[in-house]
Write a structure and sequence with these properties.
The structure holds 2 protein chains of 2 kinds. In chain A, helix 3 packs antiparallel against helix 4, helix 4 crosses helix 5 and helix 5 packs parallel to helix 6. Helix content of chain A is 35%, strand content 25%. Chain A is an alpha/beta fold. Chain B has a single domain, classed as Orthogonal Bundle (MetI-like fold). In chain B, 80% of the residues lie in helices and 0% in strands. Chain B is mainly α. Classes of the chains: A alpha/beta, B mainly alpha. Chains A and B meet through helix 2, strand 6 and helix 3 of A and helix 5 and helix 6 of B. The structure holds adenosine-5'-triphosphate (ATP) and magnesium ion (MG).
Chain lengths: 261, 213
């Protein structure tokens, strides 16, 4: 089943066109890798999907429901709820420094659950549920022992794993990653990639912007090559990475020769 | 007048000093936050208005502001405020403006990504501010705030320009009887008060040292 359809997304900053009629679709349980040169618009695309950036034109639907359509007035309404279809993991984690690892994961849900009509009667039960779900997520990313640690007490790789758990806590339909390992020392990228890989094995629907070509090739079901704001290649990894390569793709991949594609 | 007698009457002046200090803080802190929101508003006319107001309040001597609040209503034929209220109003507005700039600096120093991290988790702007941003701001502004708060302790002495009783004024009253040393003795009260505040701010900083921003 098609879970995400993004249609003709266009975005300019001033006179610079950063995304030019980008369309993509994603099946449930698939993971999509977005690769491409720096400045190609990868982050901007993710930010548009998460409504952190307002696209100039375009349409986004999830499970057939149109979340945003620039042609339809009033599309801005309820963006906050619509966001919950997506999760976003940032390049530099952005954990909340004053909260423990566990609280970072549970905070948003604790705030959301307050709006349930039954909240007052079932408060302790609901909060207990959120807490135990949070602990399960920490376990899933291998950080049970760090539940009471504050972000500054964690390594970059651990922080990023907490950030992944935090994004998972709200059960998004589509989990987006913006270069999740780019801010990490090389020896720490492995632990984060392992977590993402295990999510892929559980058929989590994901969009991963990455510079880890080998990882994209092995883990992603589909690959998008985004250059200059346009989709130049789109297909299964075999198609995208295997010759014959387009000239732009060849030039881009030549920077990664050491990575043993 | 003996030592204990002087101490006692200075203490009654000191009580007034403390009351002015406490009331001013109580009003100026929330007012400062509101003013800081105004000075960061996306609505340009409001922002300009607030910034002009802050400029005026910070640009005119506090002593003059106290006199304006007390005397000008009378000159315009409106009923005059009680002296003590006039002082509290002048202090509160003046300090709120200084606080607002500290708050603005603190709020703007928090990276946008903290807001975005909250937003993508479905939090409202208010939730993000109060649950994520505020404590980080408080931690960052503790040091500059301690400066302002300590200055306020000593600025309360300005109240005597409109004859409001406070410790320095009490000492001056005693001086008219030909005893001058109580005037210097007041310094001890100020020092002790500021000492306590310094300790409190130290505690607050320590309390917030469990995280880094
Ligand atoms: N807020 C902004 N204002 C102005 N220009 C922007 C803004 N955000 C991004 N850009 C520009 O848009 C273009 C695409 O940026 P984007 O961050 O999406 O690229 P990217 O593919 O993620 O690059 P990288 O691999 O370096 O992260 C760049 O030229 C950038 O300078
Ligand atoms: Mg980027």
């Amino acid at each position: 089943m098609t879970i995400l359809e993004a249609h003709n997304i266009t975005k300019s900053f001033g006179s610079a066109k950063v995304l030019n009629r980008v369309s993509l679709s994603l099946e449930e349980g698939e993971s999509l890798a977005i690769i491409g040169p720096s400045g190609g618009g990868k982050s901007t695309l993710l930010r548009c999907l998460n409504f952190l950036e307002r696209m100039d034109t375009g349409r986004i639907s999830v499970r057939g429901e149109v979340l945003y359509d620039s042609e339809v007035p009033g599309s801005e309404d309820g963006l906050r709820e619509k966001r919950l279809h997506f999760g976003l993991v940032f390049q530099s984690f952005h954990l909340f420094p004053q909260y423990t690892a566990l609280k970072n994961i549970t905070l948003a849900r604790e705030l959301l659950v307050k709006k349930q009509p039954s909240y007052k009667d079932r408060k302790t039960e609901l909060l207990e549920q959120i807490r135990s779900d949070g602990l399960a997520l920490l376990e899933q990313v291998g950080l049970s022992a760090k539940k009471d640690a504050y972000p500054h007490e964690l390594s970059g790789g651990q922080q990023q794993r907490v950030a992944i758990a935090r994004a998972l806590a709200l059960n998004p339909d589509i989990l987006c990653f913006d270069e999740p390992t780019s801010a990490l020392d090389p020896e720490l990228t492995g632990e984060v990639l392992r977590v993402i890989r295990s999510l892929a094995e559980k058929n989590t629907t994901m969009i991963i912007v990455t510079h880890e070509m080998q990882f994209a090739r092995q883990v992603a079901d589909k690959v998008v090559f985004l250059d200059d704001g346009a989709v130049l290649e789109y297909g299964v990894p075999q198609e995208v990475f295997e010759p014959p390569l387009s000239e732009r793709m060849q030039r881009f991949l030549s920077h990664y020769t050491d990575q043993n594609l | 007048m003996g030592f204990w007698e002087v101490t006692n009457s200075l203490l009654s002046g000191f009580r007034s000093t403390c009351l002015m200090f406490a009331l001013t803080l109580l009003i100026a802190l929330p007012l400062g936050l509101i003013i800081s929101f105004g000075s960061m508003s996306k609505f340009a006319p409001l922002r300009l208005l607030v910034k002009t107001f802050v400029w005026i309040i910070r640009g005119v001597p506090l002593m003059l502001q106290i006199m304006i609040v007390f005397y000008v209503p009378g000159l315009m034929g409106v009923s005059v405020l009680p002296r003590f209220s006039a002082v509290i109003i002048a202090f509160s507005v003046n300090y709120a403006c200084y606080f607002s700039e500290i708050f603005r600096g603190g709020i703007e120093s928090i990276s946008r990504s903290q807001y975005e991290a909250g937003q993508v988790l479905g939090m409202t702007k208010t939730q993000v501010f109060f649950r994520v941003i505020l404590l980080q701001v408080i931690k960052r502004i503790t040091a500059p705030m301690s400066n302002e708060v300590i200055t306020l302790v000593k600025d309360t002495a300005l109240a005597r320009v409109i004859m409001v009783e406070e410790i320095l004024k009490t000492a001056e009253n005693i001086m008219t009887k030909g005893i001058i040393w109580p005037l210097f003795y007041t310094g001890v009260f100020y020092l002790l008060f500021v000492g306590v505040l310094t300790l409190l701010f130290g505690c607050a900083e320590k309390k917030m040292s469990y995280f880094r921003t």
